[in-house]
Design a protein that fits this description.
The protein is an alpha/beta fold. It folds into three domains: 247 residues, 3-Layer(aba) Sandwich (Rossmann fold); 127 residues, Helicase, Ruva Protein, domain 3, CATH 1.10.8; 113 residues, Arc Repressor Mutant, subunit A (Orthogonal Bundle), CATH 1.10.10. The chain contains 24 helices and 16 strands. The chain starts with 8 loop residues before the first helix and ends with a helix.
């Protein structure tokens, strides 16, 4: 007989069902999962050797835990995945307020039902998906929200005096009995509210108005916090911090490859965007490198962090920029271009917190600087270092390209160029295709054009060419002629125009 077919307490007892605490439940299921070679935290990447082992250790120790890390480090996602370690179903007394265990009832309602019906007491089965409660800590959260309060409407409806505990309306925490309860951004919770959690974590007591209630609540607590919050917006009061058994530090991806996997997993692309737009590792690496550059930038506040959501939103904008061009040119398909990367600027400016120097530059200019640094950092992974080539003019692989521009030639790569026009513009430059063939002989077709464009951007970042922002694209021209034909003031204005 399927155990969930039991509908009364008596039937449940005949099946020799035994209950266990939620912490034992998580522990035993984790042990079983690990022994079977399975991974309960699917979709969490980059934490295999750091965060996940610490979480597993905390669960084996039956600890309440806090995940401490900067924004966009998958703290909430990890907490939500803990439900995978719960039993699929657990029994509770039907009509009880607190998911009461029929073997160990807590609420007055559940106790009264058992006293009246005994083995005929109806039970219900709760799925693990219903055993998760999440609360964002905000300044307006009250003790009544979390713990409970007297409900005058209930008192009037049941014609009970306020001294009767049946008039209590329980808050989120008691109603999360036998469940996982998550408080996000714990330091934002007012100190007096944090104090209300002391006894729940340690002695299982709750205090509601004048009632003397001792409820041995069975809850797995998970808290999340940002280190910045300890000093800027609030703090975790010391006695509460002392009662949280394990503190686990999260971090950002340590490699571009991991960051790229996360971005692809979390990005929300349509089927058309997936099928009609050809992606390329080169452009995808550039997007991820922007986030890495931002985390090290002198213009970006390191205490605030740079969320993984920056890369996700930027990737979505990148693909949409290419899609827009495809639609405007009435093309059936297209591929990503290096110039498409400037379409991600709206995804950058809203997701970085600037320090004073960054505010002076402005968010858009900082976004352009981060893109430039990303191109410069990535360029030497694909082509020889232009700085070394400058010193060796006889063997400079970029000489024919630079010479062509030095004769006064310019090219404009416009945002909405059709594929044929894009190809025609790049093929005008002598030596550009040969450069790509020499260092990437296996790259062909549209990807070859992408690498050709990338070479131009790279040379501009290493000051071998000039790059200027046009109203609807980018212009490349000779560096020396630009310097000689402009006054210092004009050059500064032109440079500033690139970032507008």
């Amino acid at each position: 007989m399927d155990i969930t077919q039991a509908i009364t307490f008596g039937e449940l007892k005949k099946l020799n069902y035994t209950t266990r605490s939620i912490k034992d439940e998580l522990r035993n299921n984790l042990i079983k999962t690990l022994r079977n070679g399975n991974q309960p935290f699917t979709g969490i990447m980059g934490y295999e050797e750091t965060v996940i082992p610490d979480i597993q250790t905390s669960i084996l120790s039956r600890h309440n835990l806090i995940l401490l890390g900067l924004r966009g480090q998958a703290k909430t996602k990890i907490a939500r995945l803990l439900i995978n370690l719960l039993d699929e179903y657990i029994p509770a007394i039907e009509g009880s307020e607190l998911n009461d265990d029929p073997f160990h009832p807590l609420s007055r309602v559940a106790k009264d039902l058992l006293a009246e019906y005994g083995n005929n007491t109806k039970i219900t089965w709760i799925h693990r998906s219903e055993r998760y409660t999440e609360k964002l800590a905000t300044p307006d959260v009250t003790v009544a929200d979390l713990i409970g309060d007297v409900d005058p409407i209930k008192a009037a409806a049941l014609k009970l005096p306020y001294s009767d505990e049946r008039v209590i309306h329980f808050g989120l925490i008691p109603r999360s009995h036998r469940s996982i309860f998550v408080i996000n951004e714990l330091p934002d919770l007012q100190a007096r509210i944090q104090v209300a959690l002391f006894n729940i974590l340690q002695e299982n007591d709750i205090q509601i108005r004048g009632f003397k209630i001792r409820l041995p609540l069975d809850i797995q607590f998970v808290f999340t916090a940002n280190p910045e919050d300890y000093t800027n917006r609030g703090s975790i009061v010391t006695p509460l911090k002392d009662r949280i058994d394990s503190q686990i530090l999260t971090h950002y991806p340590k490699a571009i490859s991991i960051s790229k996997q996360i971005t692809k997993q979390e990005s929300n692309l349509t089927e058309e965007q997936k099928n009609l737009i050809t992606k390329n590792d080169l452009v995808e690496n550039l997007v991820e490198q922007i986030a890495f550059e931002a985390r090290q930038s002198e213009y970006v506040d390191p205490k605030s962090g740079v969320s993984a959501r920056l890369s996700i939103s930027a990737y979505e904008n990148l693909v949409s920029t290419a899609e827009r061009r495809m639609i405007l040119n009435n093309e059936r398909e297209t591929n990503l271009r290096i110039s498409d990367i400037y379409g991600i600027i709206p995804a950058i400016t809203g997701k970085i917190e600037l320090v004073y120097e960054g505010e002076q530059e402005g968010p858009t200019k900082v976004a352009h600087i981060l893109i430039s640094k990303s191109i410069r950092t990535t360029f030497c992974d694909f082509f020889p270092s232009p700085e070394k080539s400058k010193k060796n003019q006889t063997a400079n692989p970029y000489q024919s390209i630079i010479s062509w521009f030095s004769k006064g030639n310019t090219i404009d790569i416009l945002t909405d160029l059709s594929f044929d026009e894009y190809q025609k513009v790049l093929n005008k430059i002598p030596g550009l295709r040969e450069l790509v063939i020499k260092y990437h002989p296996k790259v062909t077709g549209k990807d070859q054009l992408l690498f050709m464009e990338f070479a131009l951007h790279g040379l501009a970042e290493f000051s071998l060419l000039s790059k200027f922002k046009l109203e609807s694209g980018i212009q490349f021209k000779d560096m020396l002629s630009s310097m000689f034909t402009m006054s210092a003031e004009e050059e500064e204005d032109e440079s500033d125009d690139f970032y507008k």
